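[job 4471] stage=fold_predict status=RUNNING
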Amino acid sequence: MAEMKFSTQGKSSSSSSNGNMDNKKVGTFVFIGVLVVIALIVLFNCFSIVNEGFIGVKYTFGKITKDDLTPGLNFCIPFVEEIRQVDIREQIYDVTADAYTSDTQTVQELKMKLNYRYDRSKLSDLIRNVGIDNVETKLLVQNVAKISKNEIGKVKAEELVQSRADVQQKIEDKLKEILALDGIIVESFAIENLSFDDAFEASIQAKVIAAQDALKMENKTKEKEEEAKQIVIAAQAEADSKKLEADANAYAIQKVQEQLANSPNYIDYLKITNWNGELPQIIGDGVNPFVSLESNKGSTSTTPNNNNTNTNTQ
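[job 4471] inference complete, writing structure tokens
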């Protein structure tokens, strides 16, 4: 009986070839996938977003090459260039400290507030020399404390209370001058609180009350003086009025006398113009008087006999 033999060599070679091809395909897909991922990473890193209120600063291998990138999408070379954002909006620095006046009074809980922003024209120098993160610790802390204490130390405590705005303005002017050299623009400075010990504050309050009382008395004195002036003015006006009236009467009498001197009949004219229209009750020269008996009800008149009675009326 003949034996039948089967050979598997051809099948093994075919299977090995198919496996190698599959491995190569998988490797190709993985390589392509890696390239795509790398390409996406590179693509996304080519752009950087600068937000509103900020300015973009571009670094090339750690060196500032541009400091005025506007808000929005900005291009940069991945792994070579980097864009960082700097807040250019107004910043606020608050501090509480102690100070001494020229008369050795302690100002307790001296609260101050500084509003500032970065000077864009000097932004690169500020970043190189100080660093944005070090602005407060290296520039603001020492300058605000030093300048404010120096200016407060030039005035007495009472003057500081009464003229705080003036001292505040002097501190602000000094801070503007000093901080501008490093690229800091001071917008405003304010002393928000002043506190002294209880005894000194009580003395200040007593002085204020005394000053207010003195002002009230001064106002009352001025009021009384004004009333007296008004009385004098009224009396003078009345005297002037009477003098004018007297002068007018004297002038009228003078004119009448001058008219009488020039015209003797002027007296008759005055009698006529001043007559009220009523007749006298007795008219005569004392020898033959005429007696009028008229009344509102009707009357009669008689002529008496001659006698020695003299009756004259005007």
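[job 4471] summary: The helical segments are 9-44, 123-129, 135-152, 157-162, 164-179, 198-262, 266-274.
[job 4471] exit 0
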